[in-house]
Design a protein that fits this description.
Elements lengths: L2 H5 L9 E5 L1 E4 H16 L8 E5 L4 H12 L3 E5 L5 H10 L4 E4 L4 H5 L7 E3 L13 H4 L8 E7 L7 E6 H15 L6 E4 L6 H13 L2 E4 L7 H9 L4 E4 L1 H10 L12 E4 L6 H10 L4 E7 L6 E5 L13 E2 L3 E6 L12 E7 L5 E2 L3 H7 E2 L2 E10 L5 E6 L4 E3 L2 E3 L1 H8 L5 E11 L3 E10 L8 H11 L8 E4 L18
Parallel strand pairs: 1-10, 3-4, 3-5, 5-6, 9-10, 9-11, 11-12, 12-13, 25-26
Antiparallel strand pairs: 1-2, 7-8, 8-18, 13-14, 14-15, 16-17, 17-20, 19-20, 20-21, 22-23, 24-25
Helix pairs in contact: 2-3, 7-8
Length: about 500
């Protein structure tokens, strides 16, 4: 069984809607198109260790190619189309890519990066259906050993790192997420996160496994469309990273809108400030709010905070999901005591096989069976985990260790502030000094340097008060909505 077989185990013959994007398509139609691409790839006589590149925005083409590639028994490598030419070339060369599926709009870019022996297919290509015996797709697949997907993340050395996820990793994490979100075929999610991002991919996996529906919205630059779509299509769920919620709360009428169909929302991809969590609680009465935590290296999800504890355990990421052991360990590798700070580590069937062709980096993060996340955290008396910061983001100023998030949370209490990012910059006396970047609503020019500085001085000790403040129209972000702090330095 491949991961695709698992995903469509119940839904392959459903006449109900699988995707709403430009038009509606049923599960039966989607599965037929998946099979068409799978048989096409299978007849290319590739080996299961071969990789096929997928370059596409969220679309039916992405979904059909993604599941088709996996069903054929080879490895799917979905990438962000906005990656630089050098990054894409690095991935193509590293994996020895010979087959590429790309949307036509990216064809010119991809053509400039490949050799003559690489085949390219777009949404306009003909995929002649040649019958392939069903068992031949998966007869050699060992679900716990064989890689189904490689997702690339930014590498600390500058080159992207390929996270290898097995068929089993994907099945294991999908089951756990479905369990705590209590997803069913009645669920319909408003989708703004890209499918090539592990958070977005997990939404695709879980909803297709249960036979739910996905409403694709690639227009988050017009955030009001998200609010309108949820009601227009009777969506039961929505998922986003912190910047999605900050923009929705500050730049749309979400607070004045009622959502009769909305059952739950999920938030991951970084810490959402307490001020925004409280605004969501006040605005979305009766809607379950799931605060979650995860990593690409853990397939997607590692923990969640049950909605009924959101106020009592404010700022907590909760506990490990079903089947995942999530702990906070000190430098000796033992569990921290309540209130002590250590590093989050995880163990379970969702932990990656390793980084592609990079044993050294793999051994840095997987030690004694645990995935070390690089996130510093503490636990309370009941075992709930609270992230302090990523180790690499801690500001070391004059002998003090400062969490950027603590300062960001203070500045975000200013109602006119949409976004804020804090970093450490070189200082010849302190080592590092605190610098913050602030985005404010239009026509709120009275929120100036003096205003923000005075606001911080009232709530922060002097060594945490920003030394530098810079105002921007927007924070630099990747296509998943995560702030690119590297570009601020």
């Amino acid at each position: 069984m491949t991961f695709t077989d698992y995903i469509f185990e119940f839904s392959s013959k459903y006449d109900k809607t699988s995707v709403i994007f430009e038009n509606e398509i049923s599960y039966k139609q989607t599965f037929e198109n998946v099979n068409r691409k799978a048989s096409f790839i299978k007849n290319k006589k590739l080996f299961k260790k071969d990789a096929v590149l997928l370059v596409s925005d969220n679309s039916n083409f992405f979904i059909e190619a993604y599941f088709g590639i996996i069903k054929s028994g080879v490895i799917c490598v979905p990438i962000n189309p906005a990656l630089s030419n050098n990054e894409i070339k690095y991935i193509i060369d590293s994996l020895n890519i010979k087959l590429i599926f790309t949307q036509n709009k990216f064809l010119e870019k991809i053509n400039g990066l490949i050799c003559d022996d690489v085949e390219i297919y777009t949404e306009y290509s003909e995929f002649n259906f040649t019958e392939v015996h069903e068992n031949s797709y998966s007869e050699n697949i060992r679900i716990e050993e064989d890689v189904a997907v490689i997702l690339f993340t930014s590498g600390s050395t500058g080159s992207p790192k390929g996270v290898m996820l097995t068929h089993y990793n994907l099945m294991y994490n999908t089951n756990s997420i479905i369990e705590f979100l209590e997803l069913t075929l009645q669920d319909r999610v408003e989708m703004v996160l890209p499918f090539y991002y592990c958070y977005g991919t997990s939404i695709l996996h879980t909803h297709f496994r249960v036979g739910g529906s996905i409403v694709i919205n690639n227009r988050f630059m017009f955030p009001q469309t998200v609010v309108e779509d949820i009601n227009k299509y009777n969506c039961t769920g929505f998922s986003g990273v912190p910047s999605n919620y900050q923009i929705l709360l500050r730049m749309t009428d979400i607070k004045q809108t009622r959502f009769p169909s909305l059952r739950y929302i999920t938030q991951a991809g970084g810490k959402l400030s307490e001020i925004f969590i409280n605004e969501l609680i006040d605005s979305l009465k009766g809607v379950d709010i799931f605060i979650m935590y995860g990593q690409t290296e853990a397939t997607a999800r590692l923990s969640y905070l049950p909605p009924h504890l959101i106020s009592k355990k404010m700022n907590s990421i909760g506990k490990g999901i079903s089947g995942t052991e999530l702990v906070v360990l000190n430098s000796e590798g033992t569990h921290v005591k309540s209130g002590e700070i250590g590093e989050i580590a995880a163990r379970g069937g969702n932990v990656m096989k390793g980084y592609f062709n990079d044993k050294v980096e793999t051994e840095k993060v997987i030690k004694k069976g645990y995935l070390y996340t690089g996130d510093l955290a503490k636990v309370d008396d009941e075992g709930y985990i609270y992230i302090v910061s990523r180790e690499k983001n801690i500001i070391k100023s004059g002998g003090n260790r400062i969490s950027p998030k603590e300062i960001e949370d203070i500045i975000l209490q200013i109602p006119e502030v949409v976004e804020c990012a804090v970093i450490g910059v070189y200082d010849d006396i302190l080592g590092e000094a605190v610098k913050c970047f602030v985005v404010i609503l239009e026509n709120k020019s009275y929120i100036n340097l003096k205003y923000v500085l005075e606001f911080c001085k009232k709530q922060l000790p002097s060594y945490k008060t920003p030394r530098y403040i810079e105002f921007l129209k927007v924070l630099p972000k990747n296509s998943s909505g995560k702030v690119l702090t590297k570009e601020l330095k």
